[in-house]
Amino acid sequence: MVKKLKSEWLNQPGKNILAGIVVALALIPEAIAFSIIAGVDPMVGLYAAFIIATVTAIVGGRPAMISGAAGAVALLVTPLVKEHGVEYLFAATILMGFIQLILGLLKVGHLMKYIPRSVMIGFVNALAIMIFMSQIEHIFGISISTYIYVIITLLIVYIIPRFFKAIPAPLIAIVALTAFYLYTGSNVKTVGDLGSIKQTLPHFLFPNVPYNLETLQIIFPYSLSMAIVGLVESLLTAKIVDDATDTYSSKNKESRGQGIANVITGFFGGMGGCAMIGQSVINVKSGANSRLSTFTAGVVLMFMIIVLGGIVIQIPMPILAGIMVMVSIGTVDWNSFKYIKKAPKTDAFVMILTVFIVLMTHNLAIGVIVGVIFSALFFVTKISNVEVIHKDLGETKLFSFRGQIFFVSINSMMNQMNLNIENSIIELNFDQAHLWDDSAVDAIDTITRKFEEKNNIVYVKKLNKYSRKIVSELGQLNDKHLI
Questions:
Q1: pLDDT band at residue 1 using 50, 70 and 90 as cut-offs
Q2: What is the model's pTM?
Q3: Residue 201 Cα distances to 20, 43, 268, 269, angstroms
């Protein structure tokens, strides 16, 4: 236990603290922007970023992953805030957390194994494109100085790590270029242009809503949507961080941790949130590998708001935009172009479809769900072709079946059957087939009945253990048929 705590919290503390500082700076404009999307005060997003980051650092399942106020969740609650107000948002966030906690207890994390690689590649690429697109408004059409800041930031983040790694390059860029801005007063937009920052701590509150069934009916659809979207994004981000760090994390623990964090956030005046892929990638690329980095990000974020709020609002946005552009470039799976050429066409289609749906809906969860559905449909189609081999052995007619027999493959199988045979012995051989469901059993019953109606004797041979079990339990065949 002590060894695990040391590895999760005290492994390379210097690197993790510095990485956390970088992430804290990157969290501020994102949290403010997501607050604006949701239609609430910027402090609602900033409080959420602080609370969710610090809580998931302690109770989450993925060390070094960053969670906070997220755009996907913010988009979902805009109608709720507009129609009912921010207090209903707090109530919905608390319920969202309880739903996630229950899903975590039900071990929803195991569903991750059902997400195919093609969907994961599409998810990552769509995320990279979204990160880049979200920064366009902070880069183009503002001023020449903005372009210069972005270019210098890109050069610092790209070149410095090749020669010096003790301090994360994004942190160097933020400190150096902010100091330059404070000295010269360049014509660029700053964090303060996104919204005002109040230098106050969050405080405990009960949402000021009627505690009745009507309120539950209003918030439950939003809470359920936020819970599902938040978990999908969080668990996929955890998988990406797993791959980046060559480590394993508990997805069920992460689900529970996200739930606990959102419950607490709602009681302290914050909006719902989840894992943030862009900030998580910044964290890992800055050398983070422990919970200390996530905890530092949350604490430093609050410290900067309370103590250094006057300086924080003067950080030029093109610096942060440049860092996020580098993150998007690093997030893209550049092997995707080879993948499209070499992978099966259905897998390549699923990958492209996932990217397209995410970009159309601006919702990562919807893209992943659609990708998984199409991947499953293609898989079912691939295994739905059953081969039936017919041999005439004189008085005996042998039908050998090869493949997976279930509701989708029934038509393929029936179309290959010659049911006009009369006065013969019919042997149905299933040694290379597997019966999966009631539809398969019903098909065998139908074949047997039709043959017997034409004065044939029918034997069903060599069913494997599972197939024989469901035929015995669900079918109409008796012992005289089964050999």
A1: low
A2: 0.73
A3: 20, 10, 10, 11
Tell me the mean pLDDT in the region 276-280. Answer: 83
Evaluate the CA torsion angle 471, 476, 478, 480 in order and state its sign: negative
Q: What is the CA radius of gyration of the chain?
A: 29
Mean model confidence pLDDT for the chain = 87
Query: Measured in whole angstroms, how far is the alpha carbon of residue 201 from the centre of its chain?
Result: 31
Contact by Cβ (8 Å): 91, 215? yes
Q: What percent of the chain has pLDDT over 90?
A: 26
Phi, psi dihedral angles at 463 (to 5 degrees): -70, 140
- The secondary element (H helix, E strand) that includes residue 329 is helix 317-331
Domain boundaries, the chain: 2-333, 387-474
pLDDT for position 434:
92
Q: What is the pLDDT of residues 230-252, one digit of tens each?
A: 888 888 888 888 888 888 888 89
Report d(CA 56, CA 19) in Å as an integer: 17
| Helices 291-306 + 2-9 axis angle, to 10 | 50
**Among the residues of 268-335, which ranges form H helices?**
277-285, 291-306, 309-312, 317-331
Tokens representing residue 115 in the block:
């997400």
The helix (H) or strand (E) run that includes residue 113 is: none
With 80 as the cut, is the pLDDT of residue 2 above it? no
Q: pLDDT-derived band of residue 285, with 50, 70 and 90 as boundaries?
A: confident
CATH of domain 387-474: 3.30.750.24
Helix ranges restricted to H, 10-116: 13-38, 42-59, 71-84, 86-105
Q: Which residues contact 268 (CB under 8 A, 6 or more apart)?
A: 47, 51, 202, 203, 204, 205
Q: Which of 475, 410, 406, 412 has the alpha carbon at shortest distance from 435?
A: 406
First to last CA, the chain: 57
Supply the DSSP symbol for 190.
Answer: B
Q: How many whole angstroms separate alpha carbon 197 and alpha carbon 189?
A: 16
Q: To the nearest 10°, report the CA torsion of 65, 69, 75, 78.
A: 160
* pLDDT attached to residue 259: 95
Average pLDDT of span 183-206: 84
Question: 265 and 157 in contact (C-beta within 8 Å)?
Answer: no
CB-CB contact of 303 with 293 (8 Å): no
